[in-house]
UniProtKB/TrEMBL annotation:
It comes from the Eukaryota. GO terms for molecular function: aldehyde dehydrogenase (NAD+) activity. Residues 5-85 form the NAD-dependent epimerase/dehydratase domain. It holds the Pfam family Epimerase. SUPFAM superfamilies: NAD(P)-binding Rossmann-fold domains (SSF51735). InterPro entries: Epimerase_deHydtase, NAD(P)-bd_dom_sf, NAD(P)-dependent_oxidoreduct. GO terms for cellular component: cytoplasm. This is NAD(P)-binding protein. It comes from Parachaetomium inaequale.
Length: 360
């Protein structure tokens, strides 16, 4: 029996790349599914329609429109990449999946996209080392609570999924890099922001504190989502469902990103291309100056630029058989490609932080 899958954020970096990854599967359970994607604009819809999938122009803020889309397209699985920040979008989707379950008696599934930076001290995590297999990880997130909108959304997803009888998973993504494979946006958020700002100021900047956060290449991230959704689909063949709901955290950490080394390498590559005046990075004069230049929220710029966190990734490897192809060495060797990608592809304005910046 085919399952109907909806990917939100199909015009975005991660969502668009997931669409491409799902379509590239030539064997396995994904070949027996009906794939839909949600986009915001007519232009985005036109660009994705050539893929031969069901493209839905949808305002995820509109509860009625979301319900009509989920019920009308008989959606069983939602992979939500459109926003980790605006909790109402996730709530609308989960509520609609709950109504789909009520109407049909079929199980429904919500795959959420979280953020690894939440589990760092700079973002209020006070519990030190954390593994995605820890039984109390959700309760600790809930205890910390707001005001971080990503944590608010994490908690809401698990609570609303339980309320509406929807099975939930939280894929907790790190700093993602590499050229995406989607139809619209192919640049990530973090490293291109540094490069874009360096071009503007003719100087590469780094933060005064050297962080080493989790990282993963976009191709490895899409493989993780693919493996998870395939596991959900194979449950129909009596295979066990991987951990879900409050135990359904999946830290998508392939390796660490040493920021100072990264900025040194980027400065060298950009200087060789004549894009900056100095082959060595300078230190940001303040966090506020960095936030304004990078167009990141001031209240979270320190966590975004300097956090490390003591994360232990288990579930993606043990439960899904995830085998990332990119490690720290390969990442550092490929940084000149990140510069080239910005020069070629920096044509679609990033919107990830617009709700926090008050520009939604």
């Amino acid at each position: 029996m085919a399952r109907n899958i909806l990917i939100t954020g199909g015009a975005g970096y991660i969502g668009g790349s997931i669409v491409a990854a799902f379509l590239s599967r030539t064997t396995g359970p994904l070949t027996n599914t009906v794939l839909s994607t949600a986009v915001r604009t007519e232009e985005q819809a036109q660009r994705l329609s050539k893929l031969g999938i069901n493209v839905i122009q949808l305002d995820l803020h509109d509860e009625t429109a979301v319900e009509n889309a989920v019920l009308g397209n008989e959606i069983d699985i939602v992979v939500h990449t459109a926003s980790s920040i605006v909790s109402s979008l996730a709530e609308n989707l989960i509520r609609a999946l709950g109504r789909r379950r009520q109407a049909t008696g079929r199980e429904t599934y919500f795959v959420h996209t979280g953020v690894t930076a939440l589990f760092a001290e700079e973002n209020g995590w006070t519990y030190g080392e954390v593994a995605d297999t820890d039984a109390d990880i959700f309760e600790k997130e809930k205890e910390i609570g707001g005001p971080n909108p990503v944590r608010v959304t994490d908690v809401l997803v698990m609570e609303k999924a339980k309320e509406h009888g929807v099975t939930a998973f939280n894929v907790v993504v790190p700093n993602v890099y590499g050229r995406g494979s989607g139809e619209v946006r192919r640049l990530s958020g973090s490293i291109p922001a540094y490069i874009r700002t360096a071009i503007k100021h003719k100087t590469v900047y780094k933060f005064e504190h050297n962080g080493s956060p989790p990282g993963a290449h976009i191709s490895d991230i899409t493989e993780l989502y693919t493996l998870l959704v395939e596991k959900i689909l194979l449950q129909q063949q009596q295979e066990p469902l991987p951990p879900s709901n409050e135990q359904g955290y999946y830290f998508a950490m392939a390796h660490r990103i040493p920021w100072w080394v990264t900025m040194d390498r980027i400065a060298g590559h950009m200087h060789a291309r004549g894009l900056v005046a100095d082959p060595h990075p300078q230190t940001w004069p303040s966090y506020d100056a960095a936030a304004d230049s990078l167009e990141w929220p001031r209240q979270y710029v320190r966590a975004m630029g300097t956090s490390t966190g003591q994360l232990v990734a288990v579930n993606a490897f043990r439960q899904l058989g995830w085998q990332p192809k990119w490690d720290e060495k390969r990442f550092l060797e490929g940084l000149d490609d990140e510069v080239q990608d910005v020069l070629e592809l920096d044509t679609v304005k990033a919107t990830l932080f617009q709700p926090v910046l008050g520009r939604e």
